């Protein structure tokens, strides 16, 4: 078996492979026992003989019966509680001799130490980016791939061998000192992985059962249907009669798909009418290939969510993104998706529910349809990092590849929040073969290098083929408008594609998606509105979206608490709070939100204290609960201060503020010149 060292380091050639032995003593010292939590429906292998129906047509008794028939030994029917597993894999025990580095490199009581070695099945671009993230964590990653000079070999040690070969996997894991296995591609031999995993006492994350289920897209849909995850209608196809019956039931067009080994549009065919039946079946290899049909989903947007599942079974999701495909290959993604908040919340809930049904740790990509009637339907799941999550490398606090590594090692997960207003990913696809394709790709890269907020990620693949993914560009912006404007500098067509789906959604839903407010303006009473509207006018002058609400600290305290605690989750970045008299609203809001709060003392009508009481109530806050307080009644300054807070991270807004200051200077100078010229 050949062993290939990373191109970026020769030290890997001389380093001896780590022994598994330290894992046993590491866990014995900590007396840690890991057991998997019960899941809603343990995984099963669905036989080709089990027909599918729509969720509404499948009764609970039928569901249990079907899955009981489909189950393999050791797996249980949907809804059954799975007994706690016995010690499985390296987090519990392996050998008796300890590596002295185990304790000193531990980062979690229930996880592997940093000195663990991660073995990746596959060495493509996902493995490459996984290895980059692991290197930043100080974790060694090695990959198994049959292709010399695989993209991951630039970063990780590569062993030449096939990830579908059980013996190759065993040799890879045992001879390379692998502590835990994972994959960057789902088209592995799950049986071979399970055999190697059991033989060596290694964990595979996600589990072979999960990989096996997801490999069969028909079984995957049956499984999610049994767990009440919303899906398009689907049914198994065995013969021409099945196709004709499907046309009558679903109508035309409908999708015909192969059960296994489909990706990037390969393995799908659109059946437009009855005359297309034979050609569609033939294009997918015939009925013996294993086919199923899916009712056409009348979607207005394609959505995706990256969900990371920790070793204890908890799930955390990234923002919902919109994905746009060209020739069935991902072309561009935008986070957050430009859709109403209620639909984004529904998509997130469905994605988390789907992944919560599975076993194993790691990152999962969940693709969904937002349909014309507003429903969200799950399309499919990938048990690995996904193209729709590449934006996280520059647009989120913790990227999908780092969180995948954290999850499979049993470490605490990182934040999945955006670190900018909008993050867009543009795939660099081969637009021609060989040198011409290379030239076109590098022209796009050259534009990216000149674009603010853009970052290029090149995969290091050998050769260029039309339609091949060779890299991607991430574009960040403080707002959706800014990010799209930057995208247009590199690919105007991608920007127009994003705009076109927004128009289609507006037509379907009958209303435009409101712009995301960045500043929240609240006041205790509508009597404060004459004062507070000046803040809103300033925001509009600078093109900053704001929202305005009546929230009383005294009369609606529950509403105030809810507003303060959820504002940051809705994208609000600054809160302006106006109050008169006792004026508790700004301070109480500041006590319950992580956002900056600007207080505006309001002079109530008929008040003899001229707003001084409100000023003192707001500005005299205790240490630890700051409120930036402006002059009595000066809501305009509150608006300007909010703009300055936002401008610190928004170059375009900063330019507007500089221009505003210049205009004030010019106005004062002009008045001075007029006074000199005209006198008093």
From TrEMBL:
Similarity field: In the C-terminal section; belongs to the AIR carboxylase family. Class I subfamily.
Region entry Disordered, spans: 1-21, 38-91
Keyword list, A-Z: ATP-binding, Decarboxylase, Lyase, Nucleotide-binding, Purine biosynthesis
Source organism of this protein record: Dunaliella tertiolecta (Green alga)
Biological processes per GO annotation: 'de novo' IMP biosynthetic process
One Pfam short name: RS_preATP-grasp-like
Domain ATP-grasp: 221-409
Catalytic activity, as annotated: 5-amino-1-(5-phospho-D-ribosyl)imidazole-4-carboxylate + H(+) = 5-amino-1-(5-phospho-beta-D-ribosyl)imidazole + CO2
Polar residues: compositionally biased ranges: 7-21
Name assigned to this protein: phosphoribosylaminoimidazole carboxylase
Composition bias, Low complexity: 46-61
Pathway: Purine metabolism; IMP biosynthesis via de novo pathway; 5-amino-1-(5-phospho-D-ribosyl)imidazole-4-carboxylate from 5-amino-1-(5-phospho-D-ribosyl)imidazole (carboxylase route): step 1/1
PANTHER family: PHOSPHORIBOSYLAMINOIMIDAZOLE CARBOXYLASE, PURINE BIOSYNTHESIS PROTEIN 6/7, PUR6/7
GO molecular function: ATP binding; metal ion binding; phosphoribosylaminoimidazole carboxylase activity
Alphabetical list of HAMAP family matching this protein: PurE_classI, PurK
EC number of this enzyme: 4.1.1.21
InterPro entries per record: ATP-grasp, ATP-grasp_carboxylate-amine, ATP_grasp_subdomain_1, PreATP-grasp_dom_sf, PurE_ClassI, PurE_dom, PurK, PurK_C
